[in-house]
Amino acid sequence: MTVKVGIAGYGSWGKRHFESWKKVSNVEIVGAYDPAYQGEFFFKSLRELIRSSEALDVVVPAQSLAEVGTEAIEAGRHILLEKPVATNIEEAKRLASLARDNPKCLSMVGFIERFNPVFEKLHSIFKEIGKPLTIFCQRSGAPTLVARQTGVLKDLAIHDIDLLRWMLGEPKSASVRSSQSFHFGELELSFEETQALVISDCCSGPKIRRWVATFNDKTLFAYFEANRWRLFENGEEVPVVWIPPLERELRYFADCLERRTSPSPTINDAVRALEIIDQAR
Questions:
Q1: Coil, strand, or helix at residue 87?
Q2: Which end of the chain is more exposed for a tag (fewer CB within 10 A), N or C?
Q3: Can you name the residues that pair with 190 across neighbouring β-strands?
Q4: Closest C-alpha to 276, from 171, 184, 202
């Protein structure tokens, strides 16, 4: 079965989604809507795009995510919604409630790191040998539009919060250790067996992504280099077959639509991550 997918938003990330969708065999891209673009590929309105699609890939600016997601669900369409799904918790909760009231419309949030082979490997290691004592997470880079709209915690740190919940369960507590406007945030989370520190900033130019997990007898270190993540244990590289996470995420979503099975992560996962950020403040 081929699923007709429309793309709402055609900025830099929307273009990457389009290129990745072309590698997924069981979908047909019907086109995109973005008011900045015209041409044969682009619909004249969001409503026309929704009407021609079975599923909507929502890659619009952060302040429009909830509005577009709501319109798609109300029209009976499946949605893949980029994080953070909304700029505030109230909008996110309303969207989650709408999704629950429309179970035939399958919905998923683009927490792309869950489809990162390195983090899947870390997840399996934690399940096999137990939870680490500490985890340090860092995401740094140049200022982004999303960070300006939502703050760096909802743009960058939200990825690590979701990963930590996925791997360790719900945190017992969360607190912001320091924060400077929209550009820098330092968040401390306490889990049953693990203390985690999440640092995010969009003040610097170089893109930095790293995770460090410590145990009594070993240290696991993951970092981003040359468009891929690598994983090391006590200095020795752990073999991981690298497949671009976005391609894996989109293929998984398409397979869920084909099988009519509920995908994960859900809008509720995004709500929970936003709640943790708000409560930490």
A1: coil
A2: N
A3: 173, 195
A4: 171
Across the beta sheet with 134-140, what order do the strands follow?
Answer: 173-180, 184-190, 195-201, 134-140, 208-214, 219-225, 228-233, 236-237
CATH superfamily assigned to domain 113-243+276-280? Dihydrodipicolinate Reductase; domain 2 (3.30.360.10)
What CATH number is given for 3-112+247-266 in this structure?
Answer: 3.40.50.720
Domain with CATH 3.40.50.720 in the chain: 3-112+247-266
**What backbone torsions phi and psi does residue 223 show, to the nearest 5 degrees?**
-150, 160
Q: Tell me: cis bond preceding 265? Omega within 30 of 0 counts.
A: yes
Q: Exposed, middle or buried, 239 (CB in 10 Å: 0-12/13-18/19+)? A: exposed
Q: Which ranges in the chain are annotated with CATH 3.30.360.10?
A: 113-243+276-280
Please identify every stretch of the chain with a pLDDT value under 50, giving residue numbers as ranges.
Answer: none
Task: Report d(CA 140, CA 208) in Å as an integer.
Answer: 5
- pLDDT tens figures, 91-109: 999 999 999 999 999 999 9
The answer to whether residues 141 and 208 touch, using CB atoms and an 8 Å cutoff, is: yes
- Cβ(39)–Cβ(49) below 8 Å: no
Per the confidence metrics, is the pTM higher than 0.85? yes
Neighbours of 136 (CB within 10 A): 16
Report the pLDDT value the prediction gives residue 36, as an integer from 0 to 100. Answer: 96
Residue pair 104/76 in contact (Cβ under 8 Å)? The answer is yes
- The CA distance from 278 to 257, in Å, is 32
